[in-house]
Sequence to fold (140 residues):
Amino acid sequence: MLVVADSSALIAMAVCNGLPLSDHLFREVKIPPAVFEECTLAAKPAADVLDTYLREKVSGIDLNDFAITAVELGRGELEAMALCKRLGADRLLVDDRRARRAREQYRDHRQPGRAGGGQRQRTAAGHCASNRHDPIQESG
Fold:
């Protein structure tokens, strides 16, 4: 299982020595550059452990390649969501309430019979997302 992770979830796992567990649970863990930067700030708990663990898991992503409507999220969350979409990851590991809410809204709008289902939504960059209210759309 390919998982893309956000910083808050990784920091929590590192603090309780749970990073090795993720290697057993998931085939592969990937993170975007902003998440690596957030996790390895000197002031963050377990920054040195995370630096070692995450260094080879960074996968570049350019947010300019996406039309983003979830503007209330931070760069780490946005990059993680975009990387998840780009890689076709099985799961997004995030514990940020705003990011979960954005993904839940996306999931609710994809289901027929739910508000917004089947409608065409105009994204922030003017690209049209057919049958989706996904907060992050590839623009190319």
Q: What stands out?
A: Residues 108-133 have pLDDT under 50 and may be disordered. The beta strands are 2-5, 28-30, 66-68, 91-93, 121-122, 128-129, 136-138.
